[in-house]
Design goal:
The chain is an alpha/beta fold and 172 residues long. 35% of the residues lie in helices and 24% in strands.
Amino acid sequence: MQNIWILRIGHRPQRDKRVTTHVALSSRALGASGIFVDTEDKVLEESIGSVVLRFGGDYKIETGVQYKKMLKEFKGEIVHLTMYGQRLDEALPKISREKDILIVVGAEKVPPEVYQSADHNISVGNQPHSEIAALAIFLDRFTGGKNLYSDRDGQMTVIPNERGKTVVEKHS
């Protein structure tokens, strides 16, 4: 089974904590296996770990990762989401459905070696927008939305309904 990993580079804990948290949460909800973050951030690890514990799944988070080493050693295809890449609709058919993929999401200006290391530099639109939006659109299109309502066998499950909030808690 293919694993989809996220590599977040340029994370600044004091400035990007909510954005990086949302990158992780969005990627988890849309079927990624986990996230690697270049800056060590134990608070982020605890926050995402708490969501995984409550809502289930086996999503992994690791911070303090050397991104250059990861780009060199990753066995699979590297996808870099950038406003300057190839159009998403043109690039999607070229991405392997058999190999693991590593999706690079930058927080600030991305170094040139990321563009050079990537097998695919992909733009999700050509207008400035959020990296969270780009990642969510990419993952939804790449996976065909199959993970949106999957049960992760967690302590809590949200039941979609037209009005109101339905959360089912499992009691052990």
